[in-house]
Design brief:
The protein is an alpha+beta fold. The protein contains 13 helices and 14 strands.
Length: 371
């Protein structure tokens, strides 16, 4: 589930000298087609540049029928959900309803404890920028076998997991480090962030995202399915190997209960909506200047030389020197990314409906570097 845009940065490290594309999407289209040639069943991508939009697709949305992918496809966006959650928390800070320097225990007493975890030492800010040290529940071996490998997935794909269930998995492990001393991506951080939203507002994170972001921006393709296993139409099928290898049989994994991702990655959207959201966010339409600066205050993202992580968003330096802000997201059979320039004017969102191949970084470089 969503390594973050750091995964994108690995693919962006190769040298390049081209200038930004300036409206020529030839390299973007070529990168999309190359992903399909590399084994991705299908790709859909949409660019928003000022008042103009451009879309491209390649490959198929259904391996059985050969139906092509559509620019209007809805898909599971995985960890891109984190940017929505972070935006709500920053809005709550702007309203004076919480401080990012509140400890997690202030809002969720007794929830983060055990095996060295201590919620009195972890702040909301550290949840948001992944410096909390809290163990990532999706790295638990039993969770991986149960939900990400073939035998477990087909037996458990419709299971419902509560946020408390997911946090309990993390608490059964030791923390990765003392809070604030390092960086490690943890989906548990954003499960807890969703729980904080519920505690502060009295409403679920899903309700707050709908009321604060989806409805005001008229994001008609964006939803929080909760425990609903299907993806609304129009949409394509999602495919996975359900194995640690990238060879072997391909399985249709479109239907699943996304509660296993919770506020770390349950959302569904399309490329047009994601472009609109990121354009509004970076353009200052969702957060006051102070909170947007906080969101864009970054820390080193592990060992990546090209990526820094803010509050639910990454700053990625491309080989041609252009900086883009964004996030990627992965969940069964669906690999997505959305990035935009610092002013929100030039955005790209795309989805691969397979989770084992394809160079997402090449698509971003194609659009913003023209090569």
């Amino acid at each position: 589930m969503g390594a973050t845009a750091v995964a994108l940065s690995v693919a962006l490290a190769s040298p390049a000298t081209a200038a930004p594309a300036g409206g020529d999407h030839t390299a973007t289209r070529q990168a999309v087609e190359a992903a399909v040639a590399d084994g991705v069943p299908g790709v859909t991508a949409t660019v928003r540049d000022g008042r103009t939009t451009w879309s491209t697709t390649a490959g198929v949305g259904n391996l059985l029928t050969g139906t092509p992918r559509s620019a209007d496809d809805r898909y599971r966006v995985g960890s891109i959900t984190k940017t929505f959650v972070s935006t709500v928390l920053l809005q709550l800070e702007a309203e004076g309803r919480l401080s990012l320097d509140d400890t997690v225990a202030t809002w969720l007493p007794g929830v983060v404890e055990g095996n060295g975890h201590d919620g009195t030492e972890v702040t909301v800010r550290q949840l948001m920028n992944h410096t909390s040290g809290i163990y990532n529940y999706t790295q638990d071996d039993d969770f991986g076998r149960t939900y990400f490998l073939k035998d477990g997935f087909f037996q458990h794909r419709y299971d419902t997991k509560t946020p408390a269930d997911l946090v309990a998995i993390a608490m059964s492990h030791k923390p990765d480090f003392t809070p604030g001393t390092s960086w490690h991506y943890s989906n548990t951080n954003y499960v807890l962030a969703g729980m904080v939203i519920q505690k502060v507002t009295g409403h679920s994170y899903a309700t707050e995202i709908r009321n604060r972001i989806i409805n005001p921006l008229h994001l008609k393709a964006t939803s929080l399915p909760g425990t609903k296993a299907t993806v609304p139409s129009p949409s394509s099928h999602a495919y996975s190997k359900l194995a640690e290898e990238t060879t072997g049989p391909t399985y249709d994994v479109t239907k699943l209960n996304p509660s296993l991702a919770s506020s770390a990655g349950e959302m569904i959207s399309d490329s047009t909506d994601l472009d609109r959201f990121y354009s509004a966010l970076l353009g200052g339409k969702l957060l006051p200047p102070k909170q947007l600066r906080e969101m864009k205050t970054t820390v080193p993202a592990g060992d990546s030389p090209t990526t820094r992580y803010g509050l639910g968003i990454s700053d990625i330096k491309l080989p041609c020197g252009v900086h883009v802000w964004g996030h990627d997201g992965g969940i069964h059979g669906s690999s997505s990314a959305v990035v935009t320039t610092a002013d929100g004017r030039h955005s790209l969102a795309f989805n691969f409906n397979g989770d084992w191949s394809g160079d997402a970084g090449a698509v971003v470089v194609g659009e913003f570097c023209g090569t």
